[in-house]
């Protein structure tokens, strides 16, 4: 029997850990149940931190962890999935193709930044979506120091006033002063079509965010979108032109394209609709998890967000349940009633909320310490020690806040 997991992000990593944990509990050997993880590199990209400086350091190796729990790593990119023949076609780094059959499949392919067809965005826009994107932005920012102080050199426009946009924008003033000199006066502007910053956060946390933006001198342009980009800067939908050499696009994400190959229903974000055990209805043997799945967290109408907090726990349930079907033991319905947000606000600290109603629990430096612990400890892979690694993936306890 073979369980194939596509993706080495938070959901894929925990799917592998959890499946191996159940296999170990059931006393089944790796020869009887092979668990294979397919990804271009055996590396976890710590995507929630890509708004920070030195993005090239924001990865964690997975190979030793996978070896310690007897998970086979298959290097390559899954290009096609045939759910009728239960076959995955993989493109290797060497340009060859190979096929991998499965008895159960976990789709943990994550998400990608949504880039609309805005004139000039592809040529002149940056992002912090993937590792290469963040590295390109960081290289560009460092290159500003060698350019003349004109044409909006010290101005950064961030398109998108959600989580990613706010964290990228509030980090930017200190980041630019480090590059351009402590006496530099960087100008950072958030542009968002909504009439309020952080539209998903609600009324409770918003004053904290607005206060942080004021302290940092971050401007906002609300009720307007980006109409076009060119070498001189960005033009907004209200006609305003902002001179800048740096536009960071942070306006929305969609499930990775591979989900479109699964013959099933998807939501507006491209996520596969799944049942409570994270199976894809009508597609035998296929589970979806993390940003690839739209899953109910509880019985009162809350659904998992496209975040590492939900991906880790969803991954643990998906991996456990895929293995459980093969091993003939009961599956576990996914549930995640606990929900917190911890939003980095740069030198203004952070914001920590609890619950779907986002009740503010911590602000400023106290919240910042929690954010730093989450970013540098909690979301990293477990140690490459078999017992500890397997224990970390109990679905009922992963991210139990």
TrEMBL record:
Coiled coil: none annotated. It comes from the Bacteria. SUPFAM superfamilies: FAD/NAD(P)-binding domain (SSF51905). Keywords: FAD, Flavoprotein, NAD, Oxidoreductase. GO terms for molecular function: oxidoreductase activity. Its EC number is 1.6.5.-. Residues 2-315 form the FAD/NAD(P)-binding domain. Belongs to the NADH dehydrogenase family. PANTHER family: NADH DEHYDROGENASE, NADH DEHYDROGENASE-LIKE PROTEIN RV1812C. This is NAD(P)/FAD-dependent oxidoreductase. It comes from Dongia soli. The lineage of its organism: Bacteria, Pseudomonadati, Pseudomonadota, Alphaproteobacteria, Rhodospirillales.
């Amino acid at each position: 029997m073979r369980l194939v997991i596509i993706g080495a992000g938070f959901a894929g990593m925990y799917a592998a850990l959890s499946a191996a944990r159940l296999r170990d509990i059931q006393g089944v050997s790796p020869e009887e149940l092979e668990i294979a993880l397919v990804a271009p590199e055996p590396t976890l990209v710590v995507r929630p931190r890509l708004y920070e400086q030195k993005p090239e350091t924001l990865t964690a190796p997975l190979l030793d962890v996978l070896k310690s729990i007897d998970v086979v790593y298959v290097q390559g990119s899954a290009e096609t999935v045939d759910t009728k023949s239960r076959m995955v076609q993989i493109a290797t780094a060497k340009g060859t193709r190979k096929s991998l059959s499965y008895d159960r499949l976990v789709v943990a392919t994550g998400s990608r930044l949504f880039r609309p067809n805005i004139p000039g965005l592809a040529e002149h826009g940056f992002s912090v979506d993937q590792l290469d994107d963040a590295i390109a932005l960081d290289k560009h920012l460092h290159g500003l120091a060698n350019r003349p102080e004109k044409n909006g050199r010290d101005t950064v426009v961030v398109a998108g006033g959600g989580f990613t946009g706010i964290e990228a924008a509030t980090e930017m003033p200190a980041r630019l002063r480090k590059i351009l000199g402590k006496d530099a006066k960087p100008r950072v502007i958030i542009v968002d079509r909504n009439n309020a910053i952080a539209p998903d956060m609600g009324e409770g946390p918003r004053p904290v965010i607005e206060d942080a933006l004021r302290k940092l001198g971050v401007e906002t342009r609300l009720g307007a979108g980006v109409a076009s980009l060119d070498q001189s800067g960005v033009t907004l939908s209200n006609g305003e032109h902002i001179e800048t050499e740096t536009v960071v696009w942070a306006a929305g994400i969609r499930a990775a394209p591979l989900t479109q190959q699964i013959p099933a229903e998807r939501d507006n974000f491209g996520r596969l609709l799944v049942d409570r055990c994270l199976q894809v209805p009508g597609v035998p043997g296929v589970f979806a998890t993390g940003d690839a799945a739209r899953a109910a967290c509880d019985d009162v109408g809350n659904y998992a967000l496209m975040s590492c907090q939900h991906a880790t726990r969803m991954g643990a349930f998906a991996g456990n349940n895929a293995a459980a079907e093969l091993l003939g033991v009961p599956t576990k319905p996914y549930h995640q009633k606990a929900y917190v947000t911890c939003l980095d606000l740069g030198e203004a600290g952070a914001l920590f909320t609890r619950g779907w109603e986002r009740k503010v629990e911590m602000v400023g430096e106290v919240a910042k310490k929690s954010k730093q612990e989450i970013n540098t400890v909690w979301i990293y892979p477990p140690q490459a020690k078999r017992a500890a690694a397997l224990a970390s993936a109990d679905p009922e306890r992963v991210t139990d806040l």
